[in-house]
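2.7 Reproducibility. Because tokenized structures are sensitive to small changes in the input, we list the exact sequence used for ABC transporter domain-containing protein, including any N-terminal residues retained from the expression construct. No trimming or masking was applied before prediction.
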Amino acid sequence: MNNDLPLLEVKNLTIGDSTRAIFEDLSFAIDPGHTLAVMGPSGIGKSMLSKAIAGFTPTDIKVSGSIKVGGVEVSSLPLLARQAPQRPAVIFQDALQALNPLAKVGAQLSLALSSTSTKANPQQLQQIIQLLQSLGFDYPKETLASYPSQLSGGQRQRICIAIALLGDASVLIADEPTSALDPVSENEILSLYRQAIRQEQLAGILITHDLQAALACDKLLVIDDGKMIAYGQPYKALHESEHRFCSQVRELMA
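Resulting structure tokens (single pass, no recycling of outputs):
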């Protein structure tokens, strides 16, 4: 991988089905250690953008344009056809559904680390424990012995972040990861997410409706009417666009 290149580079990306284009001609790039926030009105299909980048769009969706992960073109490749470094990890809205309710947390983290075993060896176990500690778990061994339903919503979302980091993905996509959390847990999760991106030198995408969360990211991409209406450093991008959505956001900032 060329460290001079963006970890994720998207050019002229168009996503749609047989009847319409959901998005047209999107272009952006994310450097190592940086997070891009994606905003736009509800219902425009922002999650479809994350699915296209991750490689698991529905069969009726057509993707054209360029998506490069670590300099490798992957726009035509589904998730499992890609090499491991080109497989983005995705943190979904509902962590309880994303986790296996019948498997203990330790088994799920071990599988994320090795991909073949639900039982970590001593060295792997120490790595998992250190990661959980860095994500704010005071009693990691007790957490490993728990089922997802025994954890709080914020704890489950932290486990999802841990699974993503253990998988060695270079791109970490968070799709409204805090929509079901209280404000305190929300702030903690988003802070941990950005911290992990910086420390591990990943490329982060945060799909969000939270203005403060978006403003805390390195770049902002705003989409409406199927097109990019603002892109760049968050405050600058919002103030340079005259689109109605950005005007409404500026009113909230005033």
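The chain is about 35% helix and 25% strand.
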